[in-house]
Amino acid sequence: MTDILTIKHLRVEGHPPGGAYVPIVKDVSLNVGKGEVLALIGESGSGKSTISLAAMGFARPGCRIAQGEVWLNGRDIMALSPRDRHALRGDEVSYVAQSAAASFNPALRIGRQVIEAPLWHGAGDASTLTADAVNLYRKLDLPNPETVGQKFPHQVSGGQLQRLMAAMAMSCGPDLMILDEPTTALDVTTQIEVLKAFKDIIRDQGTAAIYVTHDLAVVAQVADRILVLKNGEMVEAGPTDQILHDPQRDYTKTLMAAVRPAPHLVNHRDTVAARPPVVSARTLTAGYGTVTVLSDVSIDVPAASVVGVIGESGCGKSTLARVVAGLTPLRKGEIMLDGKAVAPNLADRPREALKDCQIVFQMADTALNPRHRISDILGRPLEFYQGRKGSARADRVGDLLELVDLPRSFASRYPGELSGGQKQRINLARALAADPKVILCDEVTSALDTVVAAGVIDLLKALKDRLGVAYMFISHDLSTVASFADEVVVLYAGRVVEKGPSKAVFSPPFHPYTKLLLSSVPEMQQGWLEGVANTIEAKAASAGSVVIGAKGCPFSNRCALAIAGTCETVVPPVRELSGGLQIACHLAADHLPLS
Amino acid sequence: MSDTSDIVAPRKPTFAGLRLTRTAIFAGSVLLFWLVLALFGPWIAPHGEAEIISGQTFAPIGEGGLLGTDKLGRDVLSRLIYGVRTTLLLALVTTVISFAIGVTLGFAAAILKGWFDIVVSRIVEAFMAFPSTLLALVVIGAFGTSITVLVLTVGLVLSTSVFRVSRALGYDIGVMDFVEAARARGEGTWWILTREILPNSTAPLIAEFGLRFTFSILFLSGLSFLGLGVQEPAADWGLMVQENVGGLFLGSSAALIPAACIASLTVSMNLLVDWFQQRQQGETVLEKIDQ
After folding, report:
1. CA–CA separation, A412 and B156 (whole Å)
2. Confidence bin at B281 (pLDDT 50/70/90)
3. Chain B residue numbers touching A452 (CB-CB < 8 A)
4. How confident is the model at residue B4 (pLDDT cuts 50, 70, 90)?
């Protein structure tokens, strides 16, 4: 096999302003052959994106390629002039970024942006290039390939935009395509269509590809070979099969161990005996401006247990947490905390009610005031709720740090001196400082690396057992919820479509949407993608997009089992099934999907 | 599994990481030089502020005084040294007034939102739509040329842009999660403003202070030049330019020297602000490299 790209002994250095250069990537060598997909995996900070950029002869501002050779199609591109290197980009090598939404110019039509690069390279005139682009759209399975180029970026869905980004990257027929976490920002159901499109087009065009990701299950679907990176150094390289099933190095083994089993493979605990609810919300309806984000949502969180809230982005999960915390105004409905009705607006709630219900946000960085020391961040709720001052306060701050497995000495630090996982632990400790009955966890592990996230989940479990605190655990990651929650609520377009004990929710019968979600979670086996992408459910789901404020069942436009004439006009009834399961669907109980 | 062993380079959110560049040292030295002159002026100046030392008006450099004499035969050097006092002090007071008004109203508008924000913002926009020099001319014309009126008017005019900056900062920081967390805890508006938002606004506000200070010097000098600012016999750089502009035709540099001094002060201040802002942005570049 001829190599399209060869990188030899690459060393990339970066420098903090005014500081000396420090290495980010150390002595990395790799090669990618024609039609081959090489996956770069590792945690954030492992240098995987830096390497992929270096493959184009590019280093971010503040960084430089200090050493090594980058051979593309038999030419050392580091030896080329900047102008020649520029000419190469788009033509021979192209790049797909993580966020398609941020990569498209919102003011220009999509078609014009897709043909921009070939036009610049002089590959033809606008009309022939547009015809080529339409062919690409068709290959990428985009709906309405003839007209999609006429649209503006905001008029298509996130998954479609990511595929259009691939079309843009393919428009010059590059020999090498670099995909930097192209599906990380997408929901699981959307991820499937995008992965499928990428895989097909790479195979059809015989393009070599570098696929950067931290998601091993995704790697299993697309990669031929894997390169594992840590702190800018190569840990292990080999064929996908070997790395996934027979990792040699300890670090790779740790990575594999942090991957959670698919939701239906988890052994669920039996339902715990009924406990009084600490949060009991009835028929919550809320929204922003004229948009209704939550409609008629009822949820109970029993004491000392975990209620998982799952659903795709835009389904109202975060709004639910904000409404319960009193941050977002309520239009209708009632919230009870610990058996007592509380005002919907937090300004009207007594301090006792505020103390009982704490919230932890997704972005650990922005949830901590960068100008406050950890001792102040944790000390303030102690002072505010319990009136602790001086040494009593300082002692308790130390205890809280120990509670979340951090050294007491962290009290004098600033948030900027902590890693992402450590910051999230501080956020958790701040919530615990109030001595709450329930903590609303809004995607608390979503922004963390797999291994770090697993550590935070283990901590949450330990704290629940030790302190008897309950969690409302909001996440789009089904595997995490399945391994952790006692009860699960499935939200779709602001409505509850299914709820009940985890065991019942994650086993048949399913709501059609729950089934789609479950079957969309990538599994760590090669060939899984082809099997799932061709099912009727997946095809029906990719045809439509989420509609907020639908008249009947919100899922009817994406449901393979929808009953024409009923589902899109009538709000579905809630069916009470055995084991405490509730499913909102027009299908009779014995017609609900089973597997 | 725990991630507590992670080694993270200490990165304090303070100004400790500010490294001096050659430009910053140069600009800082110029400012320091003027500051020392302002503080010890009366002891340094060879003659009195309004003392006539020579019968020769518009004496060239080296004759009469070190930097020549002005239109009344006063020592240009001494007036320059006394003038820096007036210029710096007035600029400082007006900038402080503009910040007191602008920051208070700006953050109040960002936090209270609603009708308060709408009303104050519209009033400020109305002020901004009016040419600032014209506005000052009208006000000073109506209330007379006293230092108090001058300082209050210029402070008010400058406060409009301070308001815009503070309001934007308040809005930006007000939606951050740590502010939400404080709100969810039940903290009052005062705590959120002084403990959560203000500490995170210091860097942009310092930069804004520098810019407003510069603008204030130029504005006050402009007003003095028009005869609406500081009145004779007090010394002020803008006034000195106006007094001696007639000397230009006689080949005197008495008007050019104070003009050059104004330039040195404002350019240095601007360079310092630029350096400070670049350093602040440098921090965010570092964060990107981290990932």
Report:
1. 41
2. low
3. 3
4. very low
pLDDT confidence of residue A154:
81
Helix (H) or strand (E) holding A278: strand A277-288
B3 with A349: Cβ contact below 8 A: no
Q: Which residues on A lie below 8 Å from B204 (Cβ)?
A: none
Provide φ and ψ at A16, rounded to 5°.
Answer: -70, 155
Contact A371 B199 (CB under 8 A): yes
Subunit contact A419:B285, Cβ cutoff 8 A = no
Q: How many CB pairs under 8 A join A and B?
A: 109
Residue pair A302/A277 in contact (Cβ under 8 Å)? The answer is yes
Cα–Cα dist A592/A168, whole Å: 41
Instruction: Write out chain A residues lying below 8 Å of B6, CB-based.
Output: 419, 421-422
Structure-model confidence comparison of residues B283 and A200, the more confident one:
A200
Contact A572, A590 (CB under 8 A): no
Which parts of chain A register pLDDT below 50? Answer: none
CATH of region A3-257: 3.40.50.300
Sort B254 into a burial class: Cβ within 10 Å, 0-12 / 13-18 / 19+.
buried
**How far off is chain B from A399, nearest CA to CA, in Å?**
16
The tokens for B31 are 């400012």
In angstroms, the CA A369 to CA B67 distance is: 54
CA–chain centroid gap for A260, Å, is: 15
Between the alpha carbon of residue B103 and those of residues A39, A64, B58, the distances in Å are 51, 42, 45
- Put simply, whether B22 touches A (Cβ < 8 Å) is no
The confidence band for B234, taking pLDDT boundaries of 50, 70 and 90, is confident
> Side chain identity at A334, as an amino acid letter?
E
Domain ranges of chain A: 3-257, 265-505, 512-591
Residue A468: partners with Cβ closer than 8 Å, 6 or more residues away: A303, A304
Fold assignment, A265-505: Rossmann fold (3.40.50)
Chain B partners within 8 Å of A15 (Cβ):
289
| Mean pLDDT across chain B | 83
B 147-186 residues with CB < 8 A to A: 176-178, 180-181, 183-186
Annotated domain spans of chain B: 86-279
Minimal Cα–Cα distance from B178 to chain A, Å? 4
pLDDT at A407: 92
Using left for φ > 0, alpha for ψ between -120 and 50, and beta otherwise, residue A90 falls in: left
Four-residue CA torsion sign, B173, B174, B175, B177: positive
Rounded Cα–Cα distance for residues A577 and A581 (Å): 5
pLDDT in tens, B23-40: 888 999 999 999 998 888
CB atoms within 10 A of CB A29: 14
Decide if A3-257 and A265-505 have a common fold. Answer: yes
CB-CB under 8 Å, B178 with A366? yes
Assign residue A338 a region: left if phi > 0, alpha if psi is -120 to 50, beta otherwise? left
With a cut of 0.90, is the ipTM above it? no
Of A17, A24, A458, the CB nearest to B285: A17
CATH placement of domain B86-279: 1.10.3720.10
B129 at A interface, C-beta within 8 A: no
Q: Which residues of B touch A384 (CB under 8 A)?
A: 185-187
Supply the pLDDT for residue A271: 57
Exposed/middle/buried for residue A241 (C-beta within 10 Å: 0-12, 13-18, 19+) = middle
Q: Is the dihedral of CA B249, B255, B257, B261 positive or negative?
A: negative
Decide: A184 and A155 in contact? Cβ < 8 Å: no
**SS3 call for B51:** coil
